[in-house]
Amino acid sequence: MGCESHGYDIAEALENALWNVRHARNQQEASSIIENDGRSLTAIAIINNTDSRQLEDLQGLIDMHPEIALLAVVDPSSLQVERVRRLIHQYFFAFLTLPLDPIKAQHLLEAAWEMTLLSSPSPNPFRDEDLGMVGSSPVMQSLYRSIYRIAKVDAPVLVTGESGTGKELIARAIHDQSPRRNGPFNAINCGALPPGLIQSELFGHEKGAFTGAGQRKFGIIESTSGGTLFLDEIGDLPLDMQVSLLRFLENNHVFRLGSLKEVKVDVRVLAATHVNLEAAIEHGTFREDLYHRLNVLQLTPPPLRERREDIEEIANFFFKKYRTEKATKVKGFNQESLLLMRQHSWPGNIRELINRVRRAMVMCDQRLIRPEDLGLERRQSPSRGQVTLEQARDLAEQSAIRASLARNKYQVQHSACELDVSRATLYRLIEKHGIDRPLGKDPQIARGTTP
Ligand SMILES: Nc1ncnc2c1ncn2[C@@H]1O[C@H](COP(=O)(O)OP(=O)(O)OP(=O)(O)O)[C@@H](O)[C@H]1O
């Protein structure tokens, strides 16, 4: 909120950078925006006036909403005023001086927004379930926010990232959240198209355009009119097709093969690649002009190994999803599996995680999925000198339980008595350490029920 002219200039610069901007001219307007907005807010307050009444109002508003991270924008002369300096120091995430540097403003706003997320009562202010995506880590929260922002505009988007990180899912989510959501969403894998058919697949053909073209065919671009076209593995598109695609992106017209008549098409193009297009440009296999045309907005989903905190959530999500498809006695993952999943490097990212969970659900003949069901190597015992106190405790606990179970012929009740813990605690510890027990040795295990 703040001074009209500066406010509108800043709002325009931020809107251009795809921020969702609301402009409040005074404290009342700011309050009503805050009350009405259910999602996290990050705010800029323009302090153009050192009037103590105004400063008090501003302080009152800030006091009422400590969850909002605020950036101050001030005229350098206002910084001479002790009260302004104190207010900024006590209540603001950072400050910027006029004239505003829009790049710096954006960076600080990003950082302030992340801070807002941390203090948000809801861990997911941007609803991942609306996007069909799982994962609550800060990096995914930031991705969801970008998807919502990018969905509102109509520019091309380039989604880059490793295989299996969710590039196609992101394209789908952008479409579903965009004004084009009622139009078609079509995806095509540029690497999977036979070279002789690409032109016709993308742009269509007229009857008789080539041997075998018995009738007119609309290409996928034309069939996507009013919707979103997702070009997967764009790096594999042959150079001549890159020229045609660039022409289409520049004037929104297509020529069907065998026709000189141009057809106007309204399509938003999203493209994805797992290869480095900049390197491809250097090698002469990708056109630089097409790269710049596609790369208006870029999104890069992180590899799974860079957001390990999401692994358990995603594994449980798919476990529940597949459990409803097929009756199974498996109840979840044991602690060792969860630990190993967290440690695995996931070269195939989420696709690999889904496949391992599905495989484990088939392979598992116990109540809880073990590392071998997932095809993951069991943890090596840490070598001498590398054991932390916690690991040493774990190892001692594990070996005491194993020994007691063996002594008591796997009768959990007897072992629990011997170890002086409740049966429920012993079951929990058995699961935690991934200790194998022969099936049927304990009545509870044989029935597969929770103790
Ligand atoms: N955040 C996510 N939440 C839930 N499922 C996801 C998520 N990201 C990806 N997936 C699932 O993982 C699988 C792989 O995703 P997707 O095909 O979108 O990856 P990709 O990056 O396009 O892979 P490729 O480069 O190999 O084409 C799909 O089954 C997808 O539904």
Automatic annotation (TrEMBL):
<dbReference type="InterPro" id="IPR058031">
    <property type="entry name" value="AAA_lid_NorR"/>
</dbReference>
<dbReference type="InterPro" id="IPR025662">
    <property type="entry name" value="Sigma_54_int_dom_ATP-bd_1"/>
</dbReference>
<dbReference type="GO" id="GO:0005524">
    <property type="term" value="F:ATP binding"/>
</dbReference>
<dbReference type="Pfam" id="PF00158">
    <property type="entry name" value="Sigma54_activat"/>
</dbReference>
<dbReference type="InterPro" id="IPR025944">
    <property type="entry name" value="Sigma_54_int_dom_CS"/>
</dbReference>
<dbReference type="InterPro" id="IPR002078">
    <property type="entry name" value="Sigma_54_int"/>
</dbReference>
<feature type="domain" description="Sigma-54 factor interaction">
    <location>
        <begin position="133"/>
        <end position="362"/>
    </location>
</feature>
<protein>
    <submittedName>
        <fullName>Sigma-54-dependent Fis family transcriptional regulator</fullName>
    </submittedName>
</protein>
<dbReference type="InterPro" id="IPR027417">
    <property type="entry name" value="P-loop_NTPase"/>
</dbReference>
<dbReference type="InterPro" id="IPR045343">
    <property type="entry name" value="VpsR"/>
</dbReference>
<dbReference type="Pfam" id="PF25601">
    <property type="entry name" value="AAA_lid_14"/>
</dbReference>
<dbReference type="Pfam" id="PF20161">
    <property type="entry name" value="VpsR"/>
</dbReference>
<dbReference type="InterPro" id="IPR009057">
    <property type="entry name" value="Homeodomain-like_sf"/>
</dbReference>
<dbReference type="InterPro" id="IPR011006">
    <property type="entry name" value="CheY-like_superfamily"/>
</dbReference>
<dbReference type="InterPro" id="IPR003593">
    <property type="entry name" value="AAA+_ATPase"/>
</dbReference>
<keyword id="KW-0547">Nucleotide-binding</keyword>
<keyword id="KW-0804">Transcription</keyword>
<dbReference type="GO" id="GO:0006355">
    <property type="term" value="P:regulation of DNA-templated transcription"/>
</dbReference>
<keyword id="KW-0067">ATP-binding</keyword>
<keyword id="KW-0805">Transcription regulation</keyword>
